[in-house]
Amino acid sequence: MARYIGPKSRIARKFGEAIFGPDKVLAKKNYPPGQHGQGRRKKTSEYGIQLREKQKAKYTYGVLEKQFRNLYEKAQRTKGVTGEVLLQLLESRLDNLVYRLGFAPTRSGARQLVSHKHITVDGKVVNIASCHIRPGQVIAVREKDKSMEVIHASLNGFNHSKYPWIEWNASILSGTYLHVPEREDIPENIKEQLIVELYSK
Fold it and tell me: Shortest CA distance to 106 belongs to which of 176, 15, 19, 194?
């Protein structure tokens, strides 16, 4: 599958943000990658700024161009502010919610848990990372996988209260998707209006 598998620090340096989580390389080299990373940069055009924001959103959520375009078109057809609805659709993906529940330290790790059939939705195993989760549905670790060290290591010290749209149940390692998050609750530093302007051209 055409998913980016190169060095994540390079992408984080490109955007100047730790979009994949804490990054030691970014802390040491807080300038863009490449031969001229520390040199003088040309002023970015309006289109370039909008494209950069779309790319940042795609890398953050681990979504390919076709998937991202489909989500944008779905957001356009949905009642509400298109940019906010787009982020809400991204937040409602199964891999993202597995990440938000703390089962994995990164979204790519969460995607792997899903694809390897370690995650259930309403008691049924689901191995499609892009699966859209609806409010009221319960996401949990499959019964026979609840002793996995990688999951317990990720959950150790994880603060579930920072995501008010998810209800955590520690006794059975599950979380209920209570409602679609409001824009102000979504912590990602993404200027969604720039993405809407890009696709509107």
Answer: 19
